[in-house]
Design brief:
- By secondary structure, this protein is an alpha+beta fold.
- The chain has six helices and eight strands; from the N terminus they run βββββααβαααββα.
- It has helices at residues 45-66, 70-76, 80-87, 91-96, 98-103, 117-126; strands at residues 11-14, 17-20, 24-27, 31-34, 41-43, 77-78, 106-109, 112-116.
- The strands form three sheets. It has a three-stranded antiparallel β-sheet. Strands 6-8-7 form a three-stranded antiparallel β-sheet.
- β4 and β5 (41-43) form a beta hairpin.
- 20% of the residues are buried.
């Protein structure tokens, strides 16, 4: 396989990793292609799905670890009625919105969806309610799987082409 940026031969690699600024480094056994010349990577849809599954699992764990008591949970999380009031939309619009479910941190407890209030407020202001969750969780609660610093690291190439399952 040839690199789409520089035309050099790409190498097949195993063990893909990605830095997610919200949940830390995600490592999977997935395969990808990498150009040894320019660093361009082509990642399969299957590998990206593995990364997404790990991201969702970590997000859920971090959300669960946010509150160490019922009163703390009540302070941090709100129900759909409050989300609708903050957003200025109906409860049905909140429940049916795929964008809100993806861009605002939420967790389901006993069949009821709860939303992280700060995430809802950020979504209303910026259109994206995601942010590093570690500010709510102590490093002990994560058993070391999240990086303690959320500094962004400079990547080799900003516009790395990534293949999805739709490609």
């Amino acid at each position: 396989m040839k690199c789409c940026d520089c035309g050099k031969e790409m190498l097949k690699r195993n063990g893909y990793s990605e830095m997610d600024e919200n949940v830390g480094v995600i490592k999977t056994d997935g395969e990808y292609w990498e150009c040894p010349e320019c660093g361009c990577q082509l990642v399969s849809g299957e590998t990206l799905q593995k990364v997404d599954d790990i991201r969702k699992e970590r997000t859920d764990k971090l959300l669960w670890a946010c509150a160490d008591s019922p009163s703390e949970f009540s302070r941090l999380f709100i129900r759909v009625k409050e989300v609708a009031e903050i957003m200025g939309i109906s409860r049905q619009a909140v429940e049916k919105s795929v964008f809100l479910k993806d861009l605002v941190y939420n967790i389901t407890v006993a069949g009821v969806r709860y939303w992280l209030k700060e995430s809802v407020e950020r979504y209303k202001e910026t259109g994206n309610g995601r942010f590093p969750l570690e500010q709510y969780v102590s490093p002990k609660q994560t058993n070391g799987w999240i990086k303690s610093s959320t500094k962004r690291t400079r990547q080799k190439k900003a516009a790395t082409p990534v293949l999805s399952s739709a490609d």
